[in-house]
Specification:
- The chain is an alpha+beta fold.
- It is built from 14 helices and 15 strands.
- Helix 12 packs across helix 13.
- The chain is globular and about 70 Å long.
Length: about 425
């Protein structure tokens, strides 16, 4: 094993604009380690990095943050612990980030270091000058584990304008300058996401935009979204698309400030490849319990979650996985349910691809189409949320509202999406049948 250790300083921004150091991320061979600062561990009012690092009480939280052997802090397979794995992009976006850094798509340390100035939420990471030596928080753990750490290794500064936005769909982090959007941000963190269609699904932008319109019509809390022409964006690549979807980042605030957030995949401790979870009843009941017990606005967020779940079934959104639900931290400590994002009618794509494609989504679609009112009652019971009967009434009113409000909004939507959603509204899913 190499005797060099590489490390990054971790910072967590507050909504006021301050940047607090909270620890280090280090790599020693295949060992990737998270080491928190002692003052962060001992701070009873510490800003929340992740609910996955929170115990039943503060003593339990301190034990997690300072643990010597805990998969949430240390892995020996060359991968980050799950919270940090979920900060990295997938697919084309991951390949682009690796090219910008000049590293492998499997080098998770370098990928995170490359995009360290524009990560999801309020976390920021950057190298520490080698002349400062190996930080005690890093060195002492390795020494306790019997590992020889002789000297610090070199880590390049983050790639200017690189970003790590989770997801597979091609997307860029951008800022708005006047009426134009540009990904050349001179090192600033992006405030908007530019999402592109694909050759396989050229109507993806129109589909997702229509999904936002449908969700917004029901009064759901949505991220801001609009369609712009290709000429209104300065992209680093020449792409053959006329329209781009622009989504305002709800983890960014005016003046370049950052709002911390995390996906439910991070909260529940799943790796990105496990984003579809274990099943509707197990995962969604766990999500509801967390919202009910920990949200700063539990009643409001549980109601929003319930209505959103029903809307996604009616919308044919079979990609509402655990990376497409999130919590934000407006006060830095307590979570609230994040706005709707990625509301895509994935079932509209089934007819244009071979039957073997979208196998996971097709299986989810079959389950959701058969999801009944009794199933929803069971889900709410498993979640142990109060006033379940009131939530069932709210869900029924959501179906009625969608049946009344959505048909006119679907007229400009792609034909395949319009057919799929109208079929659902007219009895194509169990929730629309009595």
């Amino acid at each position: 094993m190499s005797t060099f250790i590489r490390y990054l300083r971790m910072y967590l921004h507050s909504v006021e604009g301050d940047k607090r150091p909270i620890g280090y991320l280090s790599q020693y061979g295949d060992i990737l380690r998270v080491s928190f600062d002692r003052d962060y561990i001992e701070d009873r009012q510490r800003p929340t990095l992740s609910l996955s690092y929170r115990g039943a009480d503060d003593a339990a939280t301190r034990a997690i943050l300072s643990a010597a052997r805990d998969a949430r802090l240390t892995r020996a397979d060359g991968k980050w612990p799950n919270f940090f794995q979920n900060l990295l992009p997938e697919g084309h976006n991951r390949e682009r980030l690796a090219r910008e850094r000049g590293c492998s798509t499997e080098d998770e340390f370098e990928l995170l270091a490359a995009a360290g100035h524009d990560l999801m939420g309020a976390l920021e990471v950057e190298p520490v000058p080698a002349e400062e030596g190996v930080p005690d928080a890093v060195r002492l753990w390795h020494t306790a584990m019997g590992l020889d750490v002789l000297e610090p290794g070199f880590v390049e500064w983050p790639v200017e304008d690189a970003a790590s936005i989770p997801g597979v769909v091609p997307k860029f982090s951008a800022v708005k300058e006047g009426r134009r959007y540009t990904v050349r941000r001179s090192g600033a963190a992006g405030s908007h996401i530019l999402k592109l269609p694909s050759a396989r699904h050229p109507d993806l932008v129109a589909n997702e935009y229509a999904g936002y319109q449908l969700a917004r019509a029901l009064g759901l809390n949505c991220a801001p979204a609009e369609i712009i022409s290709r000429d209104a964006a300065d992209l680093p690549e020449q792409l053959p698309f006329d329209e781009i979807l622009v989504v305002g980042r709800f983890d960014r605030l005016p003046g370049g400030r950052r709002l911390h957030m995390e996906e439910f995949a991070q909260i529940l401790g799943y790796e990105p490849r496990q984003k579809y979870g274990k099943g509707i009843f197990e995962d969604y009941s766990a999500m509801l319990r967390i919202i009910d017990r920990l949200s700063a606005n539990p009643a409001q967020d549980v109601q929003e979650f319930t209505r959103r779940f029903v809307a996604f079934i009616l919308m044919g959104n079979t990609d509402a996985h655990l990376k497409n639900w999130a919590m934000t931290y407006p006060d830095g400590i307590r979570p609230v349910l994040a706005p709707v994002y990625d509301p895509v009618c994935v079932t509209a794509f089934f007819e244009s691809v071979p039957p073997a494609d979208y196998a996971v989504n097709r299986a989810i679609d079959a389950r959701l189409k058969a999801f009944s009112w009794d199933d929803l009652a069971t889900l709410l019971k498993l979640a142990q949320v109060p006033r379940a009967s009131r939530l069932l009434q709210l869900a029924r009113s959501t179906v009625a509202d969608a049946q009344r409000l959505w048909p006119p909004l679907l007229e400009p939507a792609p034909d395949s999406m319009r057919r799929v959603v109208l079929e659902r509204l007219q009895g194509g899913v169990m929730l629309t049948r009595e």
